[in-house]
Structure formats: C-alpha cells, structure tokens
Amino acid sequence: MISALDISTSALVAQRTRLNAISSNIANLSTVRNENGDLEPYRARYVVLQSDAELTTSGNGVGVKVASVGEEQVDPMYRYQPNSPLAITSGKWKGYVAYPRVDLNTEFVDALQAVRAYEANVGVMEMTKGLGAQTLKILA
Questions:
Q1: Contact present, 62 and 52 (Cβ < 8 Å)
Q2: Whether the Cβ atoms of residue 71 and residue 44 lie closer than 8 Å to each other
Q3: Using CA atoms, how far apart are residues 114 and 64, in angstroms rounded to an integer?
Q4: E strands along 8-130, which residues?
C-alpha cells in the first residue's frame, strides 16, 4: 500500500508542476519583455513527464516524474501597432509588436486535464488510505 501512495504522490507533484507551467503561460499571455527588460516576448513553458523507475513496484506500477520543463521554440505573433512604444523600429517587422504565441484555449484544456489527473490521484490516495484502515480493523 505504501507504494501506491508513493506512486500517487509522484503524480501529484508532476501535475502540480504542469499546472504551474500552465499558470505561468496564462499570466504572461501579453508579456512582451523578457526578465532583462529587452523586447523579447515570453515563451510558453511546457512540462515533459516520464516514468520513474525508482518507484517501480514488482511490475505492479510505476510512478511518474518531471523529466524537464522547456520553452516553446516558435515565432511570436506580430500585431501591427506602429504608434506603440513597444513596436519594432526597423526591418521586416517595423511597426509591429511581438507577442507571445500562447493559445488560451489550449492552456485551459491542459489545465483542466492536469486538475482532473490531480483529483484522480487524490482519489486513489483516499482509497488506499481506506484499504489500510480496513486492513487494520480486520487484523486488530
């Protein structure tokens, strides 16, 4: 039973990490400057999950862990706003403002999926806890 709790706990951590990345993407939907103040739009983050061999339980289950958190490598969206102080001043995109390429609909769907997975794992933990309690009643 402890391994079931370990596996579910690993999933909770993984889904929380996903939700943090999604929250960051939504919060920075209109961020056009990077951490240094340069005109470089925010790049959406994504989380890569993988099986966690350390939580393998005799072939009966495998935990999950965060393999990496990456940044999307896509071109920004450009909006023509020639009077904006954030507009590009020269080159092909002169007069345009570069915005992050973050799709709000995709982020909401991903958030819903992460929340549902989190809730499912909390449910598994509750059931495992109930099994433990019933086992103790029988043995006592």
A1: yes
A2: yes
A3: 14
A4: 45-52, 63-71, 77-80, 96-99
